[in-house]
Amino acid sequence: MSSTTNHKPAPLGPPIPSLIGSSPAMEAVYRLTRKVAATNSSVLLLGEAGTGKELIATAIHQLSSRKDAPFVRINCGALSETLLESELFGHVKGSFTDAVKNRTGRFEAAHTGTIFLDEINCTSLLFQVKLLRVIQQREFERVGDTNTLRVDCRVIAASNKSLWDEVDAGRFREDLYWRLNVVPIVIPPLRMRREDIVPLITHFLAYYGEENEKHLAHIHPQAMQALQDYHWPGNVRELQNYMERAIVLAEGDELTLDLLPDAVLGKGDRRSGRIRGVDLETLVFEVVQQGVSTAPADETNLHEKVVNRVERELIVQVLQSCNNIQTKAATRLGINRNTLRTKLQDYNLEAKEEA
User: Fold this and answer.
1) Other CB atoms closer than 10 Å to residue 116's CB: what's the count?
2) Are the C-beta atoms of residues 60 and 114 closer than 8 Å to each other?
């Protein structure tokens, strides 16, 4: 006797109080955030600068069983390698010129809690070896000390670049990548969650209005249209900056076009992730989000499958833009024709041999 079971997709998560936005893209992020918060696994947050990776990291901590323990954050790209090692692992008196007393490092301070390593892609290969040890073995030594310390803390890392691309380029250790990338969460850029622009505008105007005791009760339709049409290369952080600027410069109670910077008005540079006709940012984000949000809980090799889907779709789009000619497509993709031919066979695609 056989039966048919209907498999319904898992419900998307409700908004998280500290985060603003209810777009489908953010609902998927909320669902993953709540799911991983209940575990102790490492999380890798991926997204452009200004998308709110630290807010997601904070939410994961606050929704976890470690919420009453410390949440320690550090920007790995803001310090030199020597200072970063001292900050993360601590040091003992006399270990270097300015070490006038013992110092507790961030890992030690995060014991029983969570440590957030932002801009993890900025670390050197040598330093990544030390990070791998503490993440994998939960032990380390302070700079200048031989006494081994053990620590229990959850690691959340963030990068505004593809770490897999950094691995391919030889700038990031593959073993560390796999230790960090247990659960990846891709945070969408603002241009891919345009439904959230108006709620964000409302929030920031209210926040900075109260802070400066100036309130903009109205937004001129042309100003609102400009804000909604803008590409937002700086993401939520850029929007936040412009709303504070508008509050400061406003003389009345309405947000008008003259309160917006030239970039929003179409007079500045609108950066976009395009590769000669292919919107790569949109392509990668949509495929990754689809792969992560629809994969079963026991899915294996998710990263490899998502990368293959992105690569196949990119090749298809580039071939279309090159009139299906291999030589031109290979040049545009930055690979030789033999490599492209192999990939065409792997993905069961066809293209013309010659221009």
Assistant:
1) 26
2) yes
Query: Which residues sit opposite 157 in a β-bridge?
Result: 44, 117
Would you state the pLDDT for residue 288? Answer: 55
Residue with tokens 């109260």: 210
Tokens standing for residue 142: 């302070």
SS3 state at 43: strand
Residues 193, 199, 200, 202: what is their CA dihedral angle, to the nearest 10 degrees? Answer: 160
Go through 232-259 and write b for each residue having 16 or more CB atoms within 10 A of its CB, e for each that does not. Answer: bbbbbebbbebbbebbeebeeeebbeeb
Q: Which two tokens stand for residue 177?
A: 């990548």
Closest by Cα among 22, 14, 15 to 196: 22
| The predicted structure's pLDDT at residue 280 | 53
CA distance 346 to 217: 58
- How far the first Cα of the chain sits from its last, in Å, is 58
The stretches in the chain having pLDDT less than 50 are 1-13, 269-278, 292-295, 297-300, 355
pTM value is 0.71
* Per-residue confidence (pLDDT) for residue 248, from 0 to 100: 93
- Cβ-Cβ contacts under 8 Å for 17 (sequence gap 6 or more): none
Rounded Cα gap, residues 289 and 306, in angstroms: 9
User: Percentage helix, strand, coil, to 5, in the chain?
Assistant: 50, 10, 40
Instruction: Please name each of the domains of the chain with its CATH number.
Output: 24-188 (3.40.50.300), 191-259 (1.10.8.60), 274-346 (1.10.10)
Residues in the chain: 355
Nearest to 88 by CA among 99, 70, 104: 104
Single out the residue of 173, 136, 151, 61 nearest to residue 105, CA to CA.
151
Half-sphere exposure of 153 (CA within 13 A, CB side): 28
